[in-house]
Structure formats: C-alpha cells, structure tokens
Amino acid sequence: MGVDKDYDFLSMHLVEHSMKKSARHMMLIYGENDPWSSGAFEVNPANDSVGYFVAGGNHGASLYTLPAAEQGAALQQLSDWMGVPIRPFPSAAASNTAEDVPVVNPVLERRHRL
Predict the structure, then answer these.
(1) Residues 95, 43, 80, 100: what is their CA dihedral angle, to the nearest 10 degrees?
(2) What pLDDT is attached to residue 106?
C-alpha cells in the first residue's frame, strides 16, 4: 500500500513562485490561529489575487467567517471574476462565527451515507 515516490522539496517553492509571479484570480483565506498560517502563501495584487486572515480563526476559517466588510469585498471580488452575482450565505449575514456556518463537504457527506 502507498506510493513509492521520493519527496521533492522544490515542489512547494515552485507553487509559491507561481503564486507570486503568475497565479491570477486567487483568493486565499487563513485563520490567524491555524498552524498552516505560518506557511501562508503571499498573493500578488498585481495578478488580481487577494489574501485574508480571519482574526482569531483556526483551520475552519472561511469566507463566511471573515468580518462583514472583508466578506463583502471577497464576495464582490468573486462575483467580478466569475461575471455573475453572488449572494451571501443566509446565516453569514446574522453572524460571522464558524459555529453558525454549516460545513458542506460532499466527500464526507457521501461517506456518511454509505
């Protein structure tokens, strides 16, 4: 079982280089208290990309746990990129806490139905 593959330590450096130099229309959202945030990629605004950190957020940080002003800006950015209007998630308007936003993961939902 498993894959016999040597670790390529350059892979993530190549991804980071791409994020800075050529990746367009990227939106990265990190939680301030998420260990993964210590290695957060920088985005290049010149490539029409944005990055957010949810204050006090953890690994469950998402667009809907951003403060209202940043959430509105992020939704508008996505709308502009896709060329279609995007409406806020209903519970996001009432509260911006992770507990109020349901997590929808089709893979996990499918596993629970099996």
Answers:
(1) -10
(2) 47
Residue with tokens 């009432």: 94
- Strands (DSSP E) contained in the chain are 27-31, 50-54
Residue 64 pLDDT exceeds 70: yes
Q: Where are the domains of the chain?
A: 11-113
- Give the predicted TM-score (pTM) of the model: 0.69
Two tokens, residue 41: 């990629």
Q: Find the radius of gyration of the CA atoms of the chain.
A: 17
**97: amino acid identity, one letter:** T
| Nearest by Cα to 27 from 7, 50, 58, 57 | 50
Which of the 8 DSSP states describes residue 37? G
Contact 27, 50 (CB under 8 A): yes
Residue with tokens 């995007």: 86
> What's the confidence (pLDDT) of residue 86?
85
What whole-number distance in Å separates Cα of residue 45 and Cα of residue 26?
10
Does an H or E element contain 101, and which?
none
d(CA 103, CA 83): 25
